[in-house]
Amino acid sequence: MLRSLVGSEMCIRDSPNHQSRQVRSGHFVEVLPTPLKAPELVAFSQDMARELELSEEAVNSEDFTRFFSGDTSVAPHLRSWCTPYALSIFGEEMYRQCPFQNGNGYGDGRAISVGEVLTSSGQRWELQLKGAGPTPFCRGADGRAVLRSSVREFVAQEAMHHLGVCTTRSLSLVVSGQDRVARQWYSDDRSENDLPDLHDPRIAHLPLEMRKMLLAQLAQQTSGPDITVDENCAITCRVAPSFIRVGQVELFGRRARKGEHHEQLEAIVAHAVDREFADCVSPDAPLQQRALVLLRESAKRIQRLTADWIRVGFAQGNFNSDNCLVAGRTMDYGPFGFVERYSPSFALWVGSGDHFGFLNQPKAGFANFRSLTSAVVEMLDHDGVMQANQILEEYLPAAQAAVKDVWRRKLGFTQWEGEHEQCWEHLHGLMERSAPDYTIMWRELAGVNQAADGATALRSLELAFYSPLSDQERAAWSSCLDDWLRLQRSEPGSAAERAHMMKQASPKYVPREWLLVEVYKAAIAGDRAPLEEMMEVMSKPYDEHPQMEERFYRKCPPELLGKGGIAHMT
Questions:
Q1: Which has the least CB within 10 A, 14, 388, 440, 461?
Q2: Please, are residues 133 and 235 in contact by the beta-carbon 8 Å criterion?
Q3: Mean pLDDT across the stretch 370-395?
Q4: Backbone angles phi, psi at 227, to 5 degrees
Q5: φ, ψ at 127 (rounded to 5°)
């Protein structure tokens, strides 16, 4: 990256680049990480270490812990850097988050890349430390991450990989024995179970949209942290072929639009194609052709990504252009969550709103892709702009088709015609009203496609419901399952083959937030066993693991359904 792109012109003058300042040009700023004091290796991913061709001896060495705690002096030949990028929220260009109100202060505020690795297979990986200390883009913050959030990210990245969702990866998690920072969080004894949900009988008489509005207002008023906690600093090393964000391309598109640094827009686009889409176009092709390939392939990957999120029940929570990689790879595991009690607008972050809600994520992906397109067209001729606009026009129908294919596989259908879609719409209406556990409902459904009738199938699904069904609800579910079973019987192939397809589309295990809380609390107390156990079960999330069911295959305990830091967070 450093050889193919341009560094900030003020990089050397402002070294060591640990304070917030404007960065008016350049694709990166060279900056050294701020090492953790008294570092200790908490965990590492054996799978990712093997990908990087790191031996067990190397991973367990003192130099490994030092390097991945930010002490890059153990590898003085490597250079480290952070990158600037722009921000759009649901397609709207933002400047107020920038301390200078012009976009020149926004970028990697606590993430520093510390090198690239080229393996013997020819795969290139970029290594990035999150929580590595302040950069010019820190906006006055301390540049640190804490063990609590770092455990969540470390687990989630590897879990998503094994769930079959494109993602950045985890290599290592290092904690400091001395460095601590203050963070606002939620106290354990705080009770929030009095907050209603969409199905609360106290508001059930209100129209659905009014209930949503009321709950959003209540959440904003009552869901903030109530204590300040001193927490141990930690650094995760995340790994990917590149970390090129839509926001990076967008930044140089904005500058080119103003007549500034047009060549830097062309350079970042060419670099993104080389790193992420090299197998889709010849390196000798004209730059415009390569830019259009970037748009076409990026569209496909982001469409597939958001459909996969829905397949496994994942809500990213804050899917802005700065959290969207051009290659359609999940990254920046902050306010993410997995759906438990089903709601189509689920998000763990209270600021997500409906626009980042669970089922709206394909539209959020489209908004990010629109921002990418608006940047790339600044370097295209008239014909190129027309082709880019055509790609943009085709985005949403393709994204919606990808989601429909998810429902097809989860329902065990080999085709998707009108009656299959009607079956899904009927089922989804019941899911909205009865709010079953998303993961358990789909997994149990995969085991009943040979049931004699809907009532029999429903008995197996009882495990997924958080409250008993009324007689009316039970009749509606049985009728819906009767229709589904009728369609199942008309499908080609064996029932066992269809059940296998359903199970491959619906994982049995996901990293539920309340389980992550148990894991990071244990890690904070020095007990790594729960983390190791979760990493083990999440390495094969589609397998049955009967010995793990009692701990990992169960609904959220009722007393935690409304608890801050588990049911919602800021």
A1: 14
A2: no
A3: 98
A4: -140, 165
A5: -105, 125
Q: What is the CA radius of gyration of the chain?
A: 24
Within 3-146, where are the H helices? 46-51, 56-59, 62-67
Active-site residue 322, yes or no? yes
Burial 386-419 (b: 16+ CB within 10 A, else e): ebbeebbeebbebbeebbebbbbbbbbbeebeee
Selecting among 322, 381, 437, 453, the annotated active-site residue is 322
Which ranges in 258-321 belong to alpha helices (H)? 262-276, 287-312
- Backbone dihedral angles phi then psi of residue 132, each to the nearest 5 degrees: -90, 10
Which letter, b or e, does each residue of 124-149 get, where b requires 16 or more Cβ atoms within 10 Å of its Cβ?
A: ebbbbbbbbbbbbbbbeebbbbbbbb
CA–CA distance, 355 with 360 (Å, rounded to integer): 6
- What number is the average pLDDT over the span 336-355? 90
Cα–Cα distance measured from residue 215 to residue 195, given in angstroms and rounded to the nearest whole number: 8
Nearest to 146 by CA among 162, 170, 130, 124: 130
Give the torsion sign (CA, 198, 201, 207, 211).
Answer: negative
What pTM was computed for the model?
A: 0.94
Q: Residue 286 and residue 380: Cα distance in Å, rounded? A: 11
Asked if 135 and 109 touch (Cβ cutoff 8 Å), the reply is yes
Measured in whole angstroms, the distance separating CA 388 from the mean position of its chain's CA atoms is 26
Burial (0-12, 13-18, 19+ Cβ within 10 Å), 96: exposed
Residue 228 has pLDDT above 60, yes or no: yes
Q: What is the 3-state secondary structure (H, E, C) of 127-174?
A: EEEECCCCCCCCCCCCCCEEHHHHHHHHHHHHHHHHCCCCECEEEEEE
Q: What is the DSSP letter of 260?
A: S
Q: What counts of helices (H) and strands (E) characterise the chain?
A: 18, 12
**Is pLDDT at 205 greater than 70 in this prediction?**
yes
Q: What are the angstrom distances between the C-alpha of 153 and each of 235, 392, 520?
A: 10, 32, 11
- Cis previous bond, 16, omega within 30: yes
Q: Is 550 exposed, middle or buried (0-12, 13-18, 19+ CB in 10 A)?
A: exposed
Mean pLDDT, residues 239-258 taken together: 97
Write phi, then psi, for 269 (nearest 5 degrees). -65, -45
Tens digit of each residue's pLDDT (9 = 90 or more) over 274-308? 999 999 999 999 999 999 999 999 999 999 999 99
**Count of C-beta atoms within a 10 Å radius of residue 180:** 15
- The Cα–Cα gap between 103 and 98 comes to 5
Amino acid at 498: R
Tell me the pLDDT tens digit for each residue of 36-51: 999 999 999 999 999 9
Phi, psi dihedrals of residue 480, rounded to the nearest 5°: -60, -45
